[in-house]
Amino acid sequence: MFKISKIIILAAITVFAHSSWSAKGHEAIYPGGVKPSIPYTPGIKLANGMLFISGQIAYQNGALPAYAHDGKNDMEDQSKIVMENLKRVLDTAGYTFDDAVYATVYMSDIKNYTIFNKVYATYWGKGKTPPARVAVEVGALPGGKPGAPILVEVSIIASK
Questions:
Q1: In contact, 106 and 54? CB cutoff 8 Å
Q2: Cα-based distances in Å from 9 to 16, 45, 81, 86
Q3: HSE value, Cβ hemisphere, 13 Å, CA-based, for 74
Q4: Mind listing the domains of the chain with CATH numbers?
Q5: Cα distance between residue 78 and residue 22, in whole Å
Q6: By CB neighbour count within 10 A (0-12 exposed, 13-18 middle, 19+ buried), where does 120 fall?
Q7: Per-residue pLDDT band at 25 (split at 50, 70, 90)
Q8: What SS3 state is found at 57?
Q9: Which of 54, 93, 121, 149 is a Cys-bridge partner for 144, taking CB atoms 3.0 to 4.6 Å apart?
Q10: What pLDDT digit, counting tens, does each position of 103-154 carry?
Q11: What pLDDT digit, counting tens, does each position of 50-101 carry?
């Protein structure tokens, strides 16, 4: 786990060192023009064509929908919402899933890996190449509440 984190940090430092990170070299991406109430930016688009999308969880309109924690297909429902949230950021920035080069997937239970993959795979058509990816199990994810846990979070790096 430490080795993967170290590699990701080194990759991020390398990207930022070779990019145009300045007030004029990046653009904040806010789907629908709405800024989150917490301190993060859904996406950052660099002048060099790189797009960094923050981890997306299964929130719609600021909350986890009831159907996504009702005990029926929760992982599938949350995975679909997460992927659609990522799609909104990609669309707002002028990108598609085909531009994704790296994804990080956090799951509260790795036993849900197969269910997540079934949903995830539908976002790349036949013959399309999905991005490089890491998937890890974590103890908990932000935004969950008793009886309404967040099961998956995904971030993406894209490039044009």
A1: no
A2: 11, 18, 27, 22
A3: 16
A4: 24-159 (3.30.1330.40)
A5: 35
A6: buried
A7: confident
A8: coil
A9: 149
A10: 999 999 999 999 999 999 999 978 899 999 999 999 999 999 999 999 999 9
A11: 999 999 999 998 899 999 999 999 999 999 999 999 999 999 999 999 999 9
Give the amino acid at 132: A
What is the spatial distance between Cα 156 and Cα 160, in angstroms, rounded to a whole number? 13
Q: Report the C-alpha gap between 7 and 43 in whole angstroms.
A: 21
Per-residue pLDDT for 14 more than 60? no
Burial class (CB in 10 A: 0-12, 13-18, 19+), 102: middle
Residue owning tokens 């969950």? 144
CA-to-CA distance for 160 and 121, rounded, in angstroms? 21
Express each pLDDT in 26-55 by its tens digit: 999 999 888 888 899 999 999 999 999 999
**Residue 89, phi then psi, degrees to nearest 5:** -65, -45
Phi-psi region of 31 (alpha: psi -120 to 50; beta: other; left: phi over 0): beta
Three-state DSSP state, 53: strand
Query: Which pLDDT score is estimated for 35?
Result: 87
